[in-house]
Design goal:
The chain is α+β, with helices and mostly antiparallel strands. The chain is 35% helix and 25% strand. The protein has 15 helices and 18 strands. Strands 6-10-11-18-17-16-15-14 form an eight-stranded mixed sheet, with helices on both faces. It has a five-stranded mixed β-barrel with strand order 1-2-3-5-4. The radius of gyration is 29 Å and the shape is elongated. The protein starts with a helix and ends in a 17-residue tail after the last helix.
Length: 498
């Protein structure tokens, strides 16, 4: 949009706003209330379509309803007005006849697009067969002081859509579809875990010690305690404390905060589902992961198979399982294993256009190569298993290879959807791992894990064999709604200053 066009548009909007404010003032002079306290609709657009969608043209049902919504269409042809209101389920046509509405007809004609209105009357079909409510009475429920975007052709500017989500939801049916599907997906995830005996819990979002993930935290100050606190980077260590306490199956749908960059796949504030199951290992969690994600796909699409970015994906179990090292060798022809010297791994990484930091250990180099050269091509659902132990400080050492951890990550559509492992429950080994992470922090790694003495104390009371899982809810929503940026599935995403 040119600056000149933008200025003309802004000027036009200002004029409309002044006109609408004048209408509000005139109503108040007459003793009318432009923002009444309540209205009681008894039918929705979906109700009317379901109950009366097959009526013949020109039908009068004798059935009276009250409906309410935002005015999104208005066509005045003299003694008749055809209006459209939009509620949470769809759109309803209002048939406004001067001979029926009488003295209130002119007041209805004075409504503007964007106003919230309620109307009561008989359900009919017009001569052209349009299902309608013939208005016998109406009420302005909230005056919109600003016009809807682009004269109701839809809000197209992406930046404005994200900054003013309320307008995006009014103007764009696709946005409403995405968030309705996200709600269905979350309900399915919750139902899947509840049906398997998991108890939904809540753990602190404000923590004295950040932990549970390799991430940089947000810091705030707790005035009453006069100490710095941290927004949660993950609920993991608290959830495992609950397993120590005897809550053998727990899960949490939670908000996490990581003080990191913005991208199409990353948001500093995001939603995770984390679950922990006593007496299980990562093989049990693999099956659990496949089942609950497949169920979520079915809830949204009616099938485990659907199209993402014009390519078919089928989330029906079982999924392919392949170790990290094997996946790298398969994709690049290069062998990379944690028992190799860091110098040799760095040379091999360089040949694959990945530059290794001299401070990185073998595991870190391997994962950087995997993320750059393998992950983007993991389209079909895949479980990448057996990560280097070095980059898995909370996972149990692999039962067959001490340089690996019993950890897997979930991939589909070219990115990671989840992370899971057989949990490390040896307090001695966990302390040693924390100390390794502390050394990494001393060398400048701001994402390295801190030593959590209270969690170590909890482990000394005994954490049974446990399998844990984290699913990225926002990313799964992206996959299931065919969107390519995480901002499309977060109602109010974080944005740079305008």
């Amino acid at each position: 949009m040119s600056d000149e066009h933008h200025q003309e548009s802004a000027t036009g909007e200002d004029a409309q706003r002044r006109q609408r404010i004048a209408k509000v003032e005139a109503m108040r002079v007459r003793g009318a209330e432009p923002y009444p306290v309540r209205f009681s609709p008894d039918a929705t657009a979906a109700d009317l379509l379901r109950e009366h969608g097959d009526l013949a043209p020109g039908t009068e049902t004798g059935h009276s309803v009250s409906v309410a919504g935002r005015l999104v269409g208005l066509r005045d042809i003299g003694k008749l007005i055809f209006a459209v209101i939009q509620d949470g389920s769809g759109r309803i046509q209002l048939f406004v006849d001067r001979s029926v509405l009488g003295d209130e007809f002119d007041a209805f004609a004075d409504l503007d697009l964007g106003d919230w209105a309620g109307a009561s009357g008989e359900v009919i079909t017009t001569r052209r067969g349009e299902l309608s409510v013939r208005v016998e009475s109406f009420a302005l429920l909230a005056k919109s002081l600003r016009p809807l975007p682009e004269k109701w052709h839809g809000l197209q500017d992406q930046e404005t859509r994200f900054r003013r989500r309320y307008l995006d939801l009014v103007a764009n049916e696709e946005s409403r579809r995405v968030f309705a599907a996200r709600a269905v997906m979350i309900r399915s995830l919750r139902d899947s875990f509840t049906a398997r005996g998991f108890v939904e819990v809540e753990t602190p979002m404000l923590q004295s010690q950040p932990g549970g993930a390799l991430a940089r935290p947000f810091v705030t100050h707790y005035n009453a305690l006069d100490r710095d606190m941290y927004l949660r980077v993950a609920p993991e260590l608290y959830l495992k404390r609950l397993v120590v306490g005897g809550m053998e199956r727990v899960f949490e749908l939670n908000r996490n905060f990581r003080n990191e960059g913005l991208s199409t796949r990353h948001s500093p504030e995001f939603t995770m589902l984390e679950a922990y199951q006593a007496f299980a290992d990562y093989y049990d969690v693999m099956e659990l992961t496949e089942e609950v994600i497949a169920a979520a796909a079915t809830a949204v699409h009616g099938s485990t198979a659907f199209t993402y970015q014009d390519r078919r994906i089928d989330l029906a179990p079982p999924w392919r399982r392949i170790p990290v090292a094997a996946a790298i060798e398969e994709a690049t022809g290069t062998e990379m294993t944690p028992d190799m010297a860091p110098e040799e791994l760095a040379v091999r990484a360089h040949r694959l256009d990945v530059v290794a930091d001299p401070a990185w250990g073998p595991g870190k180099i391997i994962i950087e190569v995997f993320e750059h050269r393998v992950e983007p091509d993991l389209w079909d659902p895949t479980l990448i298993i057996d990560y280097p132990r070095e980059v898995s400080p909370l996972a149990r050492t692999h039962r067959s290879n001490p340089l690996l951890a019993e950890r897997f990550e979930v991939f589909a559509g070219g990115w990671e959807l989840g992370n899971a492992f057989s949990e490390l429950n040896d307090p001695f080994e966990q302390r040693r791992r924390f100390e390794e992470q502390a050394n990494a922090r001393d060398r400048g790694d701001e994402e390295a894990h801190r030593i959590d003495d209270d969690y170590l104390l909890a482990l000394e009371y005994g954490l049974p064999p446990t399998g844990g899982l984290g699913i990225g809810v926002d990313r799964l929503a992206m996959l299931l709604t065919d969107t390519t940026t995480i901002r499309e599935v977060i109602l109010f995403p974080h944005l740079r200053v305008e």
